[in-house]
Structures are given as structure tokens and as C-alpha cells.
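Researcher: I'd like a structural prediction for the single chain below. Treat it as a standalone chain; there are no partners to consider.
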Amino acid sequence: MRTLLIKNARNIISMDEKRREYPGGSIYVEGQEIKAIGSSIPFETADTVIDAKDKIVYPGLINTHHHLYQTFTRNIPRTQDCELFDWLLTLYDIWRHIKPEDVYLSAMTGLGELLKSGCTTVADHFYVFPDGISGELIDEEIRAARDLGVRFFPTRGSMSLGRSQGGLPPDEVVQTEEIILQDTRRVIETYHDSSKFSFLRVGVAPCSPFSVSKSLLKESAYLARSYGVRMHTHLAETKDEERFCREKLGLRPLELMEETGWVGSDVWYAHGIWFNQHEMQTMGSCGCGVAHCPSSNMKLSSGAFPILDMQKKGVNVGLGVDGSASNDASNMLLELKVMNLLHKHQQGTNALSAEECLSVATNGSAKVLGWEDAIGSLEVGKAADLFMIDSNRLEYAGALFDDAALPVLTGTPQVDTTIVGGKVVVENGRLIRIDEQKLAARAQQAALRMVETAMKHTNINYRKRGVKNTMQKKGAFM
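Model: Treating it as a single chain, here is the predicted structure.
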């Protein structure tokens, strides 16, 4: 079993329960597991030794919600100034032309960005399966994660309620319930690894209340629990969603979840902005989690997540970047900064501190994913998932007074080294397993082809800004 020694760090920010720090500390790792941590440990040699002088070591950040396939549509002028439903309707017409290689390249790009920003575990939600395209698209994301060496938690998403049946997405990107459930079983049986230090866990994830049927929600919950895997969906993201559920189903979004078996400690929702106080209490009492995606919520004018109320009610809260199309970047350190600023603006001096924000993105996110026994902090018995920043960088000059707050409050998001499971995957700020320039060129070509194909089919120029909030002006969903 290979060993790793990280020694002489300027500081180690453990984010354990006691928030211990280890100035001048070292970490000794066997395989994936941390065997010793502290300022004086009885190890001086290992197969790999990293002198971390002037480096600050942090636990790897954990992304609890993403859509990697959206990386190629993160700067479409037509969707720059609209809210969620119009945004989705426009992008569905582009996403329907996605190919397996596009999925792989977009995942490589998004996961690569995440690794370079200190993220070591990524939960992804893939739900677009266009007609005539291979159904094994989530497999391409898994291939990308393995190529890059990131810890991955893909969730097999689904949409079954097309526009002809009263849903939001066009019929061309939805699947029948039979196909969805069959392929979900395939993905779980082929890939899911529930072991402590697994690099690949799988979840079940119908997309949203406005794109799936009640029967699919019920069947998906039964399937997930029969395999012992976790469940994920979008919920309470916008007022439009709440209005849709009331008008179409006569229920609030969480009432729909309760009716279909989608509450419990094995469930986490994305966004969760528009829950009321009673619903938060319900979620906290049953152990539900929420992926907080601040940049996406602000870009799409969805609202501000009530993080303090959620935490007071006992809801598990983690950080999510969300799809790059609704965020513009797959950068976890930037998301941390935005989260801190948003809640300072919202709550003033009562807001979460920078260190508390870091806690949400580490041990908070680990709890949301049900993986807190292995990831989320740096301590003996947990995985060696971490990142380091160089305190000698110019943007940190004059700021070396609070190492836990440093990457949240100061400087530009810049990571020197990222390690996942005891293996270096980013060194000197660069991915070490791929040629970044070649990947960027291939990715841009794929994105261009996808958008140009969509333009030919729709006769819409996506390079021009679109009409704002057309659905609200029409007063309807379809």
C-alpha cells in the first residue's frame, strides 16, 4: 500500500468537530486513509513526500449539486437575462443535440475546473436523454471522473412529463417511465460502490416537479430504497415551480414529496429557497438535506436561500455549484466567496462567518451526501482528500491573520495542489492527468457544433439576447 507524507505545512485547517488547526503540521496517509495528523507525528518517510512549507492545507470541498453537461451552454446570450422556466425552455432546444462525446468533454471540463478550485467530491445530476441518442450518457461522465481522479456521486436523473402531457420540457428530451427505471437499475448495478472510500456512488434523481409524474416519483423512491442508494431532486427553487405545483397538482412542492415518499434522511433537494417555516421543521425532523447553490440562484433571479432558518431547524445544508450554464463557472472557492457575500448582504452581522461557510462546503456537504464517515474533514480514519494554497501569493500579502477564513475572504480563488484519496491530481495549479489546452480546444469545438446545430433546427439566433420573462407575460407554463 502506497504512503504519502505532507510535512511542514504553514497550517492544517482540519474542519473537524473541534475546528482544530495544526500550525507547522504534517499528515501521513496509507492508501486513501489518513493515519496520523498533527504538529509532531512519528513519520519522516513515505513513498511520496510533499514539503508543504508556506502552504495551508484544507479538507477537499464537496459539491452537492451540479449539471456537468451544461458546461457548453454557460455563455449563451439568449439566456443571459431570463428566469428559470424561460431559461430551461431555451436551453432544452440546444441540449437535445448533445452527443456522448459532448457529455464526456463537458464533464472533463467541469470536473477539471472543480479540481483546480479545491473540490474533491462532486455530486452530479444528469437528466437529459434526447431521442435518437445513446441512453448511456451518464456513463460518459463516469468515464471522465475516472480519467481525472475525482471522487464522484452521479445521480441518474429523469424527465417523463413532456410538454404534450402538461410538463415543461419538450417531448424530444423525455423518456418513458419503463426506460427510466430500467436504465436506473443498470446504472446502480453497474457502478454503485457503497464502501467507505468508494470513488463512485450512485443516486436516483427525477428532475423536478414540473418534468416528472407522480408515479415516476413513487417508483423511483421504491427503486432507490430497494438498492439502498440516496435520492435527489430539484425542489422549491422558484415561485414559478410553486405556482405550477399548486395549479397542476393542488399541492405545494414539499407536499408532493411527502405524498410520493420523497422525504427522509436518504433524500436531499437542490436549491430549497421557497420552503416555509413549517416545511423546514418537517425537513429537519426527518433528516432531509439541501444543496445550496447561491450563484445560480442569483443569476436566475430565483431568490435567496434562508440558510440560518434551515440550520436552526436542523436541516443538513451543503454547498452546490449547480450547472455552469446557470453559474458561469465550476469553481467551488468562488462559490464559497459568493455564498459568504450573499448572506452578509442578506443577514448583516448575524450571517455565517467565513469559517462557517467553509464548514458548509466540507462537513456540511458530507452530511448531505451521507458520506461524513469518510470525507468532509481532515482527521485520522478519513480520506486524504484535500487542497493546498500557497500563502506566498501576492493576493494573500497582508492577509495572513486567519488561515481558515483566508480563501473565502481574500485573494482570487487559486489552488496550488489538490489531492484525492492520497493521490495528487492538481500540481502547481494545473491538472496533471490531461493536457488542458487540448481539452479546451476539443471542448470549444463540441460546444460550437451543438449550438450551431440547434440554430439550424430552430431558426433562433442564440448569439442575440432573448426576450425577458415571456412565460410570466403569457401567464401560463406552456
